[in-house]
Amino acid sequence: QLPTGLYKKVLVILHDSVLPYMNEPTLMMDFLTVAYGIGGAISLLALNGLFILIHQHNLEYPDFYKKLYSLLDPSIYHVKYRARFFHLTDLFLSSSHLPAYLVAAFIKRLARLALTAPPEALLMIIPFICNLFRRHPACRLLVHRPGGPADMSEDPYVMEEEEPSQSRALESSLWEIQSLQNHYHPDVAKAAAVLNQSLSEMEDDISGLLELSAYELFDKEVKKKAVDVPLEFEQVRGLFGKKNDIFAEHFSLD
Protein backbone atom coordinates (compact mmCIF):
# COMPACT_ATOMS: atom_id res chain seq x y z
CA GLN A 1 0.00 0.00 0.00
CA LEU A 2 1.37 3.37 -1.06
CA PRO A 3 0.18 6.85 -0.08
CA THR A 4 -2.19 8.35 -2.65
CA GLY A 5 0.20 11.21 -3.39
CA LEU A 6 3.06 8.80 -4.13
CA TYR A 7 0.85 6.69 -6.41
CA LYS A 8 0.07 9.80 -8.45
CA LYS A 9 3.70 10.95 -8.66
CA VAL A 10 4.83 7.51 -9.86
CA LEU A 11 2.00 6.93 -12.34
CA VAL A 12 2.33 10.37 -13.96
CA ILE A 13 5.87 9.58 -15.15
CA LEU A 14 5.80 5.77 -15.33
CA HIS A 15 4.76 5.43 -18.99
CA ASP A 16 7.46 7.68 -20.48
CA SER A 17 10.24 7.86 -17.85
CA VAL A 18 10.30 4.29 -16.48
CA LEU A 19 8.75 1.63 -18.73
CA PRO A 20 10.78 2.48 -21.90
CA TYR A 21 14.04 1.97 -19.94
CA MET A 22 13.16 -1.34 -18.29
CA ASN A 23 14.51 -4.61 -19.69
CA GLU A 24 11.28 -6.33 -18.64
CA PRO A 25 8.39 -3.83 -18.48
CA THR A 26 6.06 -6.76 -17.80
CA LEU A 27 7.34 -6.72 -14.20
CA MET A 28 5.06 -3.70 -13.70
CA MET A 29 1.90 -5.64 -14.61
CA ASP A 30 0.85 -6.38 -11.03
CA PHE A 31 1.55 -2.86 -9.84
CA LEU A 32 -0.43 -1.28 -12.67
CA THR A 33 -3.39 -3.64 -12.44
CA VAL A 34 -3.64 -3.04 -8.70
CA ALA A 35 -3.42 0.74 -9.25
CA TYR A 36 -6.07 0.50 -11.98
CA GLY A 37 -8.40 -1.17 -9.49
CA ILE A 38 -8.07 1.53 -6.82
CA GLY A 39 -10.44 3.95 -8.55
CA GLY A 40 -10.57 7.70 -9.00
CA ALA A 41 -7.60 9.68 -10.33
CA ILE A 42 -5.17 6.82 -9.61
CA SER A 43 -7.05 4.55 -12.03
CA LEU A 44 -7.01 7.28 -14.67
CA LEU A 45 -3.25 7.69 -14.34
CA ALA A 46 -2.65 3.92 -14.46
CA LEU A 47 -4.25 3.81 -17.92
CA ASN A 48 -1.09 5.13 -19.60
CA GLY A 49 1.09 2.31 -18.34
CA LEU A 50 -1.58 -0.33 -18.97
CA PHE A 51 -1.98 0.92 -22.53
CA ILE A 52 1.74 0.27 -23.19
CA LEU A 53 1.64 -3.19 -21.62
CA ILE A 54 -1.54 -4.21 -23.47
CA HIS A 55 -0.44 -2.97 -26.89
CA GLN A 56 3.28 -3.72 -26.79
CA HIS A 57 3.66 -6.59 -24.30
CA ASN A 58 0.46 -8.63 -24.77
CA LEU A 59 -0.94 -8.05 -21.31
CA GLU A 60 -4.35 -9.73 -20.98
CA TYR A 61 -6.84 -7.95 -18.76
CA PRO A 62 -10.26 -9.65 -19.10
CA ASP A 63 -12.27 -7.02 -17.23
CA PHE A 64 -10.42 -4.06 -18.69
CA TYR A 65 -13.42 -2.47 -20.48
CA LYS A 66 -15.73 -3.15 -17.55
CA LYS A 67 -13.33 -1.24 -15.30
CA LEU A 68 -12.91 1.54 -17.86
CA TYR A 69 -16.70 1.83 -18.05
CA SER A 70 -16.93 2.10 -14.26
CA LEU A 71 -14.47 5.02 -14.29
CA LEU A 72 -17.05 7.13 -16.09
CA ASP A 73 -18.66 9.16 -13.31
CA PRO A 74 -19.68 12.85 -13.02
CA SER A 75 -16.18 13.87 -11.89
CA ILE A 76 -14.59 12.69 -15.14
CA TYR A 77 -15.43 16.00 -16.85
CA HIS A 78 -13.82 18.03 -14.06
CA VAL A 79 -10.60 16.20 -13.12
CA LYS A 80 -7.15 17.57 -13.91
CA TYR A 81 -6.28 14.47 -15.96
CA ARG A 82 -9.35 14.73 -18.22
CA ALA A 83 -7.35 15.24 -21.43
CA ARG A 84 -5.12 12.22 -20.79
CA PHE A 85 -8.09 10.00 -19.91
CA PHE A 86 -10.15 10.83 -22.99
CA HIS A 87 -7.12 10.55 -25.28
CA LEU A 88 -6.56 6.99 -24.08
CA THR A 89 -10.28 6.13 -24.03
CA ASP A 90 -10.41 7.24 -27.65
CA LEU A 91 -7.57 4.83 -28.46
CA PHE A 92 -9.17 1.93 -26.57
CA LEU A 93 -12.50 2.44 -28.37
CA SER A 94 -10.93 2.81 -31.82
CA SER A 95 -10.99 -0.90 -32.68
CA SER A 96 -13.75 -1.88 -35.12
CA HIS A 97 -13.85 -5.36 -33.52
CA LEU A 98 -15.50 -4.14 -30.31
CA PRO A 99 -19.08 -5.40 -29.85
CA ALA A 100 -21.86 -2.88 -30.51
CA TYR A 101 -23.39 -3.31 -27.03
CA LEU A 102 -20.09 -2.22 -25.42
CA VAL A 103 -19.65 0.92 -27.53
CA ALA A 104 -23.35 1.79 -27.11
CA ALA A 105 -22.95 1.53 -23.33
CA PHE A 106 -20.01 3.96 -23.41
CA ILE A 107 -21.96 6.36 -25.67
CA LYS A 108 -25.01 6.34 -23.40
CA ARG A 109 -23.00 6.77 -20.20
CA LEU A 110 -20.97 9.65 -21.66
CA ALA A 111 -24.15 11.31 -22.94
CA ARG A 112 -25.96 10.91 -19.61
CA LEU A 113 -23.04 12.41 -17.69
CA ALA A 114 -22.85 15.23 -20.25
CA LEU A 115 -26.16 16.60 -18.93
CA THR A 116 -24.28 18.03 -15.93
CA ALA A 117 -20.93 18.73 -17.63
CA PRO A 118 -19.44 22.22 -18.13
CA PRO A 119 -19.48 23.72 -21.67
CA GLU A 120 -15.74 23.24 -22.26
CA ALA A 121 -16.14 19.49 -21.64
CA LEU A 122 -19.26 19.28 -23.82
CA LEU A 123 -17.45 20.81 -26.81
CA MET A 124 -15.02 17.89 -26.56
CA ILE A 125 -17.37 15.02 -25.72
CA ILE A 126 -19.98 15.64 -28.44
CA PRO A 127 -17.41 15.24 -31.30
CA PHE A 128 -16.01 12.28 -29.32
CA ILE A 129 -19.43 10.58 -29.42
CA CYS A 130 -19.82 11.44 -33.12
CA ASN A 131 -16.50 9.70 -33.83
CA LEU A 132 -17.75 6.58 -32.04
CA PHE A 133 -20.80 6.54 -34.32
CA ARG A 134 -18.54 6.82 -37.37
CA ARG A 135 -16.42 3.84 -36.24
CA HIS A 136 -19.35 1.70 -35.16
CA PRO A 137 -22.32 2.23 -37.53
CA ALA A 138 -24.38 -0.40 -35.66
CA CYS A 139 -24.69 2.09 -32.78
CA ARG A 140 -26.39 4.71 -34.96
CA LEU A 141 -29.65 3.06 -33.95
CA LEU A 142 -29.41 5.23 -30.82
CA VAL A 143 -29.85 8.33 -32.97
CA HIS A 144 -32.06 7.07 -35.78
CA ARG A 145 -34.43 4.84 -33.79
CA PRO A 146 -37.94 5.17 -35.30
CA GLY A 147 -39.95 7.55 -33.14
CA GLY A 148 -36.96 8.22 -30.93
CA PRO A 149 -37.60 9.20 -27.30
CA ALA A 150 -41.24 10.04 -28.11
CA ASP A 151 -42.15 6.33 -28.28
CA MET A 152 -40.51 5.50 -24.94
CA SER A 153 -42.38 5.77 -21.67
CA GLU A 154 -39.02 5.53 -19.92
CA ASP A 155 -35.37 5.08 -20.86
CA PRO A 156 -34.50 1.34 -20.77
CA TYR A 157 -30.81 2.16 -20.21
CA VAL A 158 -29.67 1.20 -16.69
CA MET A 159 -27.16 3.80 -15.55
CA GLU A 160 -26.34 1.99 -12.30
CA GLU A 161 -25.43 -1.29 -14.02
CA GLU A 162 -21.66 -1.96 -13.77
CA GLU A 163 -21.63 -4.59 -16.52
CA PRO A 164 -21.88 -2.88 -19.96
CA SER A 165 -23.51 -5.94 -21.52
CA GLN A 166 -26.39 -5.71 -19.01
CA SER A 167 -26.96 -1.94 -19.35
CA ARG A 168 -29.52 -2.29 -22.21
CA ALA A 169 -27.91 0.67 -23.98
CA LEU A 170 -28.77 -0.59 -27.48
CA GLU A 171 -32.47 -0.55 -26.58
CA SER A 172 -32.30 3.14 -25.69
CA SER A 173 -32.26 6.42 -27.61
CA LEU A 174 -29.82 9.30 -27.37
CA TRP A 175 -32.27 11.87 -25.97
CA GLU A 176 -29.49 13.45 -23.89
CA ILE A 177 -27.82 14.97 -26.96
CA GLN A 178 -31.22 16.18 -28.15
CA SER A 179 -31.59 17.96 -24.80
CA LEU A 180 -28.17 19.58 -25.27
CA GLN A 181 -29.45 21.15 -28.49
CA ASN A 182 -31.21 23.62 -26.17
CA HIS A 183 -28.07 24.34 -24.13
CA TYR A 184 -27.51 27.90 -22.96
CA HIS A 185 -24.09 28.04 -24.64
CA PRO A 186 -24.62 28.55 -28.40
CA ASP A 187 -21.49 26.60 -29.38
CA VAL A 188 -22.69 23.55 -27.43
CA ALA A 189 -26.18 23.74 -28.97
CA LYS A 190 -24.61 24.02 -32.45
CA ALA A 191 -22.30 21.03 -31.80
CA ALA A 192 -25.20 18.89 -30.54
CA ALA A 193 -27.30 19.74 -33.60
CA VAL A 194 -24.77 17.91 -35.82
CA LEU A 195 -26.48 14.61 -34.95
CA ASN A 196 -29.67 15.85 -36.66
CA GLN A 197 -27.85 15.49 -39.97
CA SER A 198 -26.03 12.57 -41.56
CA LEU A 199 -22.47 12.38 -40.23
CA SER A 200 -19.54 12.76 -42.60
CA GLU A 201 -17.15 9.85 -43.06
CA MET A 202 -14.17 11.85 -41.82
CA GLU A 203 -13.63 11.76 -38.06
CA ASP A 204 -13.44 14.99 -36.08
CA ASP A 205 -10.02 15.85 -34.69
CA ILE A 206 -10.58 16.19 -30.95
CA SER A 207 -6.91 16.61 -29.98
CA GLY A 208 -7.27 20.40 -29.81
CA LEU A 209 -10.42 20.13 -27.67
CA LEU A 210 -9.10 17.77 -24.97
CA GLU A 211 -7.57 20.54 -22.88
CA LEU A 212 -10.13 23.25 -23.65
CA SER A 213 -10.72 25.33 -20.52
CA ALA A 214 -13.47 27.61 -19.27
CA TYR A 215 -10.99 30.50 -19.43
CA GLU A 216 -10.41 29.93 -23.16
CA LEU A 217 -14.16 29.84 -23.82
CA PHE A 218 -14.66 33.07 -21.87
CA ASP A 219 -11.71 34.72 -23.60
CA LYS A 220 -13.13 33.77 -27.00
CA GLU A 221 -16.49 35.33 -26.16
CA VAL A 222 -14.87 38.53 -24.88
CA LYS A 223 -12.86 38.96 -28.08
CA LYS A 224 -15.90 38.65 -30.34
CA LYS A 225 -16.81 41.84 -32.13
CA ALA A 226 -20.05 43.24 -30.81
CA VAL A 227 -22.82 43.78 -33.35
CA ASP A 228 -24.88 46.93 -32.95
CA VAL A 229 -28.53 45.95 -32.65
CA PRO A 230 -31.04 48.69 -33.50
CA LEU A 231 -33.65 49.09 -30.77
CA GLU A 232 -36.96 50.95 -30.66
CA PHE A 233 -38.19 52.26 -27.37
CA GLU A 234 -40.84 54.56 -26.03
CA GLN A 235 -39.48 57.42 -24.01
CA VAL A 236 -40.40 57.22 -20.32
CA ARG A 237 -43.15 59.54 -19.19
CA GLY A 238 -44.01 59.76 -15.55
CA LEU A 239 -42.37 58.01 -12.66
CA PHE A 240 -43.44 54.50 -13.68
CA GLY A 241 -43.46 54.99 -17.45
CA LYS A 242 -47.20 55.28 -18.02
CA LYS A 243 -48.58 58.18 -20.04
CA ASN A 244 -51.45 59.03 -17.72
CA ASP A 245 -49.64 58.16 -14.53
CA ILE A 246 -51.10 59.91 -11.49
CA PHE A 247 -47.58 60.15 -10.07
CA ALA A 248 -46.58 62.31 -13.05
CA GLU A 249 -48.93 65.02 -11.75
CA HIS A 250 -47.02 65.27 -8.47
CA PHE A 251 -43.48 64.04 -9.21
CA SER A 252 -40.97 64.85 -11.91
CA LEU A 253 -37.96 62.88 -13.21
CA ASP A 254 -35.90 66.05 -13.64
Automatic annotation (TrEMBL):
Please name the InterPro entries in this protein's record. CCAAT-binding_factor (IPR005612), Noc4 (IPR027193)
Q: Where is each CCAAT-binding factor domain found? A: 43-192
Supply one GO BP term.
ribosome biogenesis
What top-level branch of life does the organism fall under?
Eukaryota
Residue stretches spanning the membrane? 31-54, 85-107
Alphabetic keyword roster: Membrane, Transmembrane, Transmembrane helix
What family is it from? Belongs to the CBF/MAK21 family.
What is the recorded name of this protein? NOC4L protein
| Organism encoding this protein | Myiagra hebetior
Gene name tied to this protein: Noc4l
